[in-house]
Amino acid sequence: MQGGNHMLLEEPVRLASCLAPAKPKVFPSLTKIVGTLGPRSRSVEVIEECLTAGMSVARFDFSWKDAAYHQETLDNLRKAAQNVKKLCPIMLDTVGPEIQVHNSTGDSIELKGGNHVTITPDLSKPPSADILPIKFGDLAKVVKKGDTLFMGQYLFTGSESTSLWLEVTETSGEEVICLVKNTATLSGPIFTLHVSQVHISMPTLSEYDKQVISTWGLQNSVDIISLSHTRSSEDVSELRAFLLSHDLQDTQIYAKIENAEGLEHFDEILQEADGIIISRGDLGIDLPPERVFRSQKTGIQKCNLAGKPVIITRVVDSMVDNLRPTRAEATDVANAVLDGTDGILLGAETLRGQYPVDSVGTVGKICSEAETVYNQSLHFKRVVRHVGEPMAHEESVASSAVRSAMKVKAAAIIVFTFSGRAARLIAKYRPPMPVLAVVFPREGSDPSKWLSYGTTQARQCFSVRGVYPLMGSTDEAETGGLTKEEYGIKLALNYGRSVGIIKPYDRVIIFEKIGDSSVVKIIECDDS
Questions:
Q1: How far apart (Å, rounded) are the C-alpha atoms in residues 19 and 17?
Q2: What's the pLDDT score for residue 154?
Q3: 477 vs 484, residue with greater confidence
Q4: Which terminus of the chain, N or C, has fewer Cβ atoms within 10 Å?
């Protein structure tokens, strides 16, 4: 039976099955979890626990703290990853065109609903319940009476007592006078101001972002850059050119869609970017509440059909302060998985929340449970229909590999790849089993440069649903005289056995390119 066209349930359906004890999981969910590292999650010990609990990607948010602080955190991440023997990609999150309110005193500011407050670009004025200085001089030029503004340290998290909802009543010179719609207390040194559905004439890639990328990003060879507030494909092209000019051509760009402009140009952005982050924080206040679900579901489907990773944010906000998510949040995570998301991004939950490790583990368990009823058959048919006929050779072989894996109930699909592209192509058809991507050096490549390039390609696979990369080698000292294929299969099978996804007599699909051709094989594992 199909439930909502996204959920596959076996007949007869018995709700009592929900009461059965969950089967123990020895392997993380296929859906990836991005954790934002910060005060509550930057020690080696906590990062180790997060990685063990299922965190696949580490996000560094440069909208707060300086490069030295983030470098300490990254050094701890590297130690933790080494200790638990896992690769973990680095995601650098840019600040972008963010209007900031500078609270020079640091004191809490209480604003009462029904009162008025003036927003001014004059930073010399101390912030209060009557006046709030912002670092942007053109606000009065771009807003009009009736426009909606939101303000807060974390914007609207669901805890409205810390976020402010304003309505523009008039403009006076460079100042904007607003009606306070709700009572709230603003706290912290910096608040963010979001203007709903209004174009702000600030560059998407700020000078600060460029400085961070060209120094901290280059020094640490960041794997992924999350381009905040992406509004057009030109934003992505500009960042791509900047990366090329700073020897970061291997760094992937994930466009962060968080406003109406980004949605309007979604198709062009998707074509230009390596992946998409549907950022429901700002997006959730830029759109009417009844429209948010449509942006998520449509955006995910477009990414799925294009075969590009898509990540959803803001799912378990309540776990910042609570050990368990709300019922609505748990269902929200599951629905994102059923929609087809590649990953879930945790922000405040891991950055400043009381339970960073539990947040990762809880979301992972929900994802795993949802994956058991994911309607893979429907997704497969949709992608095949979208690709059309005649199929390109690589699409034909990749879809055949996934179809074969389904028919023989394979425990895993092993892919040999140089760049990770073959693994992403397999993942496009959403196999219900893990994809073990053995990343080999390209023939004739410089061994001294390969390790850096290959590690980057391997780490980037961690943001793709179901793909788990392994570093291959062509060094005879490591391969033990085995052929590339024999060594790759042995490496993948040994890993699969060690994490419990491959057992004796399981079947495994092998997918590899030989010259201009692609080959699919089925092997049965012995009990050795």
A1: 5
A2: 65
A3: 484
A4: C
What are the C-alpha distances in Å from 231 to residues 9, 97, 201, 296, 313?
39, 10, 11, 16, 18
Distance CA 344, CA 381 (A): 24
For the record, the structure tokens of 15 come out as: 């709700």
Are the CB atoms for 225 and 252 separated by under 8 Å?
A: yes
| Model confidence pLDDT, tens digit, residues 181-219 | 999 998 877 788 989 888 888 999 999 999 999 999 999
C-alpha distance across the termini of the chain, in Å:
40
Continuous segment of H or E residues that includes residue 312 = strand 310-313
Rounded to whole angstroms, how far apart are CA atoms 287 and 266?
A: 15
Q: Is 175 exposed, middle or buried (0-12, 13-18, 19+ CB in 10 A)?
A: middle
Helix (H) or strand (E) holding 116: strand 116-120
pTM to 2 decimals?
Answer: 0.93
Distance CA(224)–CA(239), nearest Å, equals 12
* Residue 422 clears pLDDT 80, i.e. is over it: yes
Task: Give the torsion sign (CA, 161, 163, 167, 172).
Answer: positive
Q: 400, 475, 463: which is closest to 437 by C-alpha?
A: 463
Question: pLDDT tens digits for 105-151?
Answer: 888 999 999 999 999 999 999 899 999 999 899 999 999 999 999 98
Burial readout 56-84 (b: 16 or more C-beta within 10 A, e: otherwise): bbbbbbbeeeebeebeebbebbeebbeee
280, 313 Cβ separation under 8 angstroms: yes
